[in-house]
Structure formats: structure tokens, C-alpha cells
């Protein structure tokens, strides 16, 4: 049965404590990626009703540092399910709870594979986009999948028809 992106929505909030920071008093990128991996895995598990493993993480750029004592909010939801793999979109922002100020940290795409009892890839439910934003993410997911499979050595560039069409549009 198909599921909606909203069915897999996860919002995770963490408080940045001294042990999470670098020498500048900002949240370490590695700690943030760890929290993002957990939030995204929860979303993928909600979608697939199965345990999942991280197959790949797309490029990550950190726009603004998240300060010691601030909150970090990570929103994750599945954008598209292929066969056994699912793309999860993450939106991350910081919040200074004293100054009541919210700021963007980054956005990212993680890919997860659902596994069966034997630890083998297992088909995940289809995803049915609802909103305009859902549809935009759903459509782009096919091209992003082609990029990551080419980079992972799992697809020949010549087979990535939708990606190629994007460059041929002029
Ligand atoms: C990810 C993993 C399950 C893929 O298994 P595999 O035996 O290569 O299986 P397949 O080639 O049949 O691929 C299974 C799915 O993974 C997808 N996949 C494989 N490599 C991928 C990559 N680099 N990026 C995105 N998706 C990938 C495939 O497209 C396929 O998806 P689909 O069924 O929706 O088409 C396997 O490589 C694995 O277990 N990796 C380690 C995962 C892990 O431990 N992660 C934590 C970090 S250490």
C-alpha cells in the first residue's frame, strides 16, 4: 500500500552541549551528520516498516554554524521509494532559544535500503506525493538517484536518461 511523505515525517530536536562542539564552540559537523542519520533512518523505517541501512549520503554544505546552547532541529521525510531503496530529505535549522532566532543550517538527501529478516534488501512501499513540494521532491529524486548510482559505480552514465535530458534541455 502506498504511503504519503507525511506518514514518514520525523522532527528531532537536540540541545548542543559542550561535548558536541569544536574548539570554536560550534556544533561539530560529524555530530550533526550522526543525528541526521538517525532522524533519516527513523523516517525510512516509518515508511518501510522494516529495519534500514544507510546506502549513501549526498553532498553536504553547512551554511551557518550552530552555537553551543542552541537547539538543533532536524526534519526528515521520505521523498520517493524506488524498489528496496528510499530517498530521505532533511532540513536542518538551529534555534537560539534566548534570542528567539531561527537560522538555516543545511538540507541534505540520504538514501536507505530496507532489509528483510535475512539482512537482504526488501521492497519498500510506494510513495504517493500529496503537495506541490512533495511532487517536486519526488520528480527530482529520480535524477538524484542516477547521480548517486553513477558516482557509486552502480550505473553507467549512458543509462541515466532523465539526467541526460536535463543537460540536453538547453
Ligand atoms: C546498501 C546495500 C544494502 C546495497 O546492497 P547490494 O547488495 O549492493 O544490493 P543492490 O545492488 O541490489 O542494491 C539494493 C538497493 O540499494 C541501492 N543502492 C546501492 N548502492 C547505492 C548507492 N551508492 N547509493 C544509493 N543507492 C544505492 C540500489 O539502487 C538498490 O535500490 P533499489 O532496489 O531501490 O533499486 C549494501 O551495499 C550494504 O549493506 N551496505 C552497507 C550499509 C551500511 O552498513 N551502512 C552504514 C554505514 S557503515
TrEMBL record:
Gene3D superfamilies: Hotdog Thioesterase
A Pfam family recorded for this sequence: 4HBT
Annotated CDD domains: BFIT_BACH (cd03442)
Transmembrane segments: none
Keyword terms: Hydrolase
InterPro entries: Cytosol_ACT, HOTDOG_ACOT, HotDog_dom_sf, Thioestr_dom
HotDog ACOT-type domain span: 6-118
Coiled-coil region(s): none
Family recorded in the similarity comment: Belongs to the acyl coenzyme A hydrolase family.
PANTHER family tied to this protein: ACYL COENZYME A THIOESTER HYDROLASE
Protein name from the UniProt record: Acyl-CoA thioesterase
